[in-house]
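seq as requested:
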Amino acid sequence: MHEVSLEQTIYDYITGKKIELTTYEDVRQALAKILVEEKGYPKENIFPKIELNLDIGQKPYTITLDFIIKDQGKPVLLLAFCPGEVSSYVRQYVSAARLFDPPIPLIIVTDSKDARLVRSYDKKIIEQGFNSIPSWNELRALCSNVPEPKLTPEKKQKEARLAYAYFSLTDGCCSSRCPMSTE
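struct tokens:
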């Protein structure tokens, strides 16, 4: 099932801005609430719907990532909702995390029932199950011990092509861009 507009707007839990309500947006909003209210993440450290431009030497392709979590201005976690088997989405988000400068060290991929906490350095699954979403303090401790991928320009280009291949197949919005806001 692809993500489709429900032709309504809601207020984003993190930003307070009006956004388009889609078939998956209620799940994203629930995840944001869990991060803040149950896991102790400061709202100001959560950045929803971050666009990542993939430079693959052809026409531009932009993907929208659900949440980037930053600590002291540095991205430390990419949190992604996937509408299907969690393990089949892990690799595309590892590629996306590796394309940031500096690369994002940790990724959580969830379908709202299951989740995987993964290191971008080596694709190792650190935790599995919905309870694998760390608290804010646990995340900060994890980040202090996680190696950062070092990518050559050639490796970065390969990761961009891999991300393009995966995201173009699984793009939840039936386009290369999801609308960010209705304002």
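Confidence is low (pLDDT under 50) at residues 173-183.
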